[in-house]
Write a structure and sequence with these properties.
The structure is a single chain. The protein contains two helices and two strands. It is mainly alpha-helical. Strands 1-2 form a two-stranded antiparallel sheet. Strand 1 and strand 2 form a beta hairpin.
C-alpha cells in the first residue's frame, strides 16, 4: 500500500496563510470601526431627537396652560353675563368643546288633526 506523501509546508504557503490572517484581521477591524461610527452617529441623532422632544413638550405644556386659562376666562365670563352669550357658539360641558357650527331650530305650525266632531260637521253640510 502506498501512502500519500506529506508535503512539507513551503515558506510561500505559510506567508500566504499569515497574509490571509492579517487581511481578515484588518477587514474585521474596519468593519468594527464602521459599526462603531454608525452607533456613535445613531446615538448623536437620538440625543438630538430627544432634545427636540423636550422642547416640543415644553411648547405643548405652555399652549395647554394658555388654553386652560382661556377656558377659565370664558367660563367666568359666561357665569357673570349668562344672557350675553353668542347665539352661534354653544358649549358642550361633557366634552368641554365649543361648537362653531350654528344650530338652526325652526318653529312650524302643528299639522291640523281631524277629530270626530269636525268630521261629523263636514257630513252635515
Amino acid at each position: 500500500m502506498s501512502h500519500p506523501s506529506k508535503t512539507a509546508p513551503t515558506p510561500h504557503s505559510t506567508s500566504d496563510s499569515k497574509s490571509m490572517h492579517t487581511i481578515n484581521n484588518v477587514a474585521n477591524f474596519l468593519q468594527d470601526q464602521l459599526l462603531s461610527n454608525e452607533i456613535k452617529e445613531l446615538n448623536q441623532r437620538g440625543a438630538i431627537i430627544h432634545q427636540e422632544n423636550i422642547e416640543l413638550y415644553k411648547q405643548f405644556s405652555a399652549v395647554q396652560q394658555q388654553n386652560s386659562e382661556l377656558q377659565k376666562k370664558v367660563s367666568e365670563a359666561e357665569d357673570v353675563n349668562p344672557t350675553e352669550q353668542h347665539s352661534h357658539m354653544s358649549y358642550n360641558v361633557k366634552n368641554s368643546v365649543y361648537l362653531t357650527t350654528p344650530i338652526s331650530l325652526e318653529l312650524s305650525q302643528p299639522k291640523q288633526q281631524i277629530n270626530e266632531t269636525s268630521a261629523r260637521n263636514m257630513k252635515l253640510w
